[in-house]
Design brief:
Keywords: ATP-binding, Cell membrane, Membrane, Nucleotide-binding, Translocase, Transport. One of its GO terms (molecular function) is ATPase-coupled transmembrane transporter activity. It is found in: Cell membrane. This is ABC transporter related. With about 270 residues, this protein is α/β, with parallel strands linked by helices. The protein has two domains: about 5-240, 3-Layer(aba) Sandwich (Rossmann fold), CATH 3.40.50.300; about 240-269, no CATH class. It has helices at about 40-50, 70-75, 95-105, 110-125, 140-150, 170-185, 195-200, 220-225, 225-230, 240-245, 255-269; strands spanning about 5-15, 15-25, 30-35, 55-60, 65, 80, 155-160, 190, 205-210, 215-220. It has a six-stranded mixed β-sheet, sandwiched between helices. Strands 2-1-4-5 form a four-stranded antiparallel β-sheet, with helices on one face. Strand 4 (about 55-60) and strand 5 (about 65) form a beta hairpin. The longest helix is centred in the middle third of the chain and has 16 residues, at about 170-185. It is globular. About 40% of the residues are buried.
């Protein structure tokens, strides 16, 4: 059994207008990106995983706990959500207090919460700003603080909502490294995202949502190799994948580095 099991999930906000229509998915270790156009059901799906919404029919099991029988507050120990906009998440006047809020709220004592918060800030590269006001920092730094505040809670599952929004190259690279670190340390990392290049660089599995259903589900290279299906869902493969397709390459390349390595390997032969 995976860490998350979704069984015949149906959900609607208004009677007769289903948003999610019979979703069956299992998540365990692979870092996973959920992609799809606006209105495909991605955000609703994440709210259901967090217990903020309850299924109309079907079940969601988080580490064996049915979300129908568990509160969102209880699930916060196991599932952390990093908001798209850090300004929607941050409200304390000191960085360390901000990061400690979540751990304290789920029952960690002060000493444990402080220790976990300092480790989380070090992990995201913010070890020298404990006493600063978050709103004196850049948007990119506030994003890192919001990530640290979730990591400090030590959930098994961490969900990123559009992690690259408003991030420059340096910020994207830092978040990419954090996702890699979390995955290597056994966390299940999920994201809902529109940035196809970042998905190709950072995630092992891709699930495509369309009109409340799963259109595709597979490893990242496999999903991005089906450009025709992606286009039917109003999505595009990563830029390097599109370029290589136009140049006539039959292989699917996810990153520039991967393409260069392939060419160098052929030359050595």
């Amino acid at each position: 059994m995976g860490r998350i099991e979704v069984k015949d999930l149906h959900f609607s906000y208004n009677k007769g207008e289903e948003i999610l229509k019979g979703i069956n998915l299992s998540f365990d270790k692979e870092s996973t990106a959920i992609i799809g156009q606006n209105g495909a059901g991605k955000t609703t799906f994440v709210k259901l995983l967090k217990g903020l919404l309850k299924p109309d029919t079907g079940d969601i099991l988080i580490l064996g706990k049915n979300t129908k029988e568990t509160t969102a507050a209880e699930l916060a120990k196991y599932v952390g959500l990093v908001f798209q906009n850090p300004n929607d998440q941050i409200f304390k006047n000191k960085v360390l207090d901000e990061v400690m809020f979540g751990p304290l709220n789920i029952g960690q004592d002060h000493e444990e919460a402080e220790e976990n918060s300092i480790k989380a800030l070090e992990m995201v590269g913010c070890k020298d700003i404990y006493n600063k006001n978050p709103y004196d920092l850049s948007l990119s730094e506030r994003k890192l603080i919001s990530i640290a505040s979730i990591i400090a809670m030590k959930p098994e599952i961490i969900i990123f909502d559009e992690p690259t929004i408003a991030q420059d190259y340096v910020g994207r690279e830092k978040i990419k490294a954090i996702i890699k670190n979390l995955t290597e340390n056994g966390k299940l990392v999920l994201t809902i995202i529109h940035d196809m290049d970042f998905v190709a660089e950072s995630f092992e599995r891709v699930i495509v949502f369309q009109n409340g259903k799963v259109l595709m589900d597979g490893n990242t290279k496999e999903v991005y190799s089906h450009a025709d299906i992606l286009y039917s869902a109003y999505l595009e493969p990563p830029h390097i994948t599109q370029l290589c397709n136009k140049l006539g390459y039959k292989d699917t390349f996810l990153t520039v580095e991967e393409f260069i390595e392939s060419k160098q390997s052929l030359r050595q032969k």
